[in-house]
Write a structure and sequence with these properties.
Blueprint lengths: L3 E2 L1 H14 L10 E3 L1 H7 L7 H4 L7 H12 L7 E6 L4 E5 L1 H6 L8 E8 L17 H4 L10
Parallel strand pairs: 1-2, 3-5
Antiparallel strand pairs: 2-5, 3-4
Length: about 150
């Protein structure tokens, strides 16, 4: 599998966007990343309730979960990683599926990059475990010293 994004490259693309407004990765191409890089380094909207309702046959996420388990992540619907000009690196799209794969062993998932300037998320009512507002702290990667 080609076009695998490693943690160093994720950090480098953030720095390049912050310092030069230059894209290291195309925003129109699918790349692949280990879910562990996302779990270990990025904040994303945690949807713990997804698992408590998976038993409901009418739950739309149950079918997605079963498909992810059986077939892996469909590259036609990549997750989106946002790269912001103020140091933000965050899951821009795919939060529900990111939550669903926590107990599924996938080596890589497909992603696309979205580069943003002065991003303000529409959902500001999410909080980190320590009680701080998700925005702006939840958009900064865990490798920064700002958190």
């Amino acid at each position: 599998m080609e076009d695998i994004v490693k943690i160093k490259e994720l950090k480098d693309t953030s720095e390049l966007w912050i310092n030069n407004s230059e894209k290291m990765f195309s925003d129109s191409k699918v790349y692949y990343i280990s879910p562990d890089i996302i779990f270990d380094n990025l904040y994303y909207e945690d949807k713990d309730g997804i698992f408590s309702i998976l038993d409901n046959d009418r739950n739309q996420y149950k079918n997605i979960y079963e498909d992810l388990k059986k077939n892996g992540w469909d590259s036609k619907y990549p997750a989106r990683i946002g790269i912001g000009n103020r140091g933000e690196v965050f899951v821009y799209g795919g939060n529900h599926r990111i939550n669903l794969i926590k107990d599924i062993n996938l080596d890589y998932i497909p992603i696309m990059f979205i580069y943003v300037n002065n991003h303000v998320p529409t959902n500001k009512s999410v909080y980190l475990e320590d009680g701080r507002d998700f925005y702006p702290y939840g958009l900064l990667p865990k490798w920064t010293n700002k958190i």
